[in-house]
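User: Could you go from structure to sequence for me? I need the amino acid at each position, not a summary. Structure tokens:
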């Protein structure tokens, strides 16, 4: 299996994976406050332009089985060094095989290669499988509250 960065030709693949994720876990991938209309249009556009979507594929079957994406922080002052894991989704039939961990490792290396020294994410407190995967990938609970009720903010330093 391999992880690769999605390109413009992968739009349909990304939409299919994203739709499956949203149908399975409605509301799990909601926007953060940085995406609100209170942000300047330039800040929102810059943040969206920094999104780095990955897909994990089974090389022999050439079937996408998981996806993840990260982007730079919406705050222009922090954007050079801080990023956010926006989504991680593994299709149900391949869960439990360590794919989320390998996909997170590829995402972390890409973020590091782009100068990110700290990745943040928010995860539902009741999502035991995701919490476990994030802890195994080196994320720790943050001391700041999550933007949404029922979620936990987590972070990982990449320069240590």
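Assistant: Here is the amino acid at each position, in order:
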């Amino acid at each position: 299996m391999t992880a690769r960065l999605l390109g413009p030709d992968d739009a349909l693949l990304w939409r299919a994976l994203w739709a499956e994720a949203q149908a399975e876990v409605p509301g799990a991938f909601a926007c953060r406050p940085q995406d609100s209309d209170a942000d300047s249009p330039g800040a929102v556009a810059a943040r969206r332009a920094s999104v780095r979507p990955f897909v994990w594929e089974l090389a022999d079957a050439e079937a996408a089985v998981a996806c993840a994406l990260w982007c730079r922080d919406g705050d222009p002052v922090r954007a050079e060094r801080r990023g956010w894991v926006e989504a991680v989704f593994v299709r149900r039939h391949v869960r439990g095989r360590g794919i989320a961990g390998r996909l997170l490792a590829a995402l972390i290396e890409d973020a590091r290669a782009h100068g990110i020294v700290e990745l943040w994410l928010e995860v539902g407190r009741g999502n035991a499988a995701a919490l476990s995967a994030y802890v195994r990938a080196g994320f720790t609970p943050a001391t700041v509250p999550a933007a949404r009720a029922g979620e936990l903010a987590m972070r990982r330093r990449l320069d240590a």
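One structural detail worth keeping in mind: The first helix runs from residue 11 to 24.
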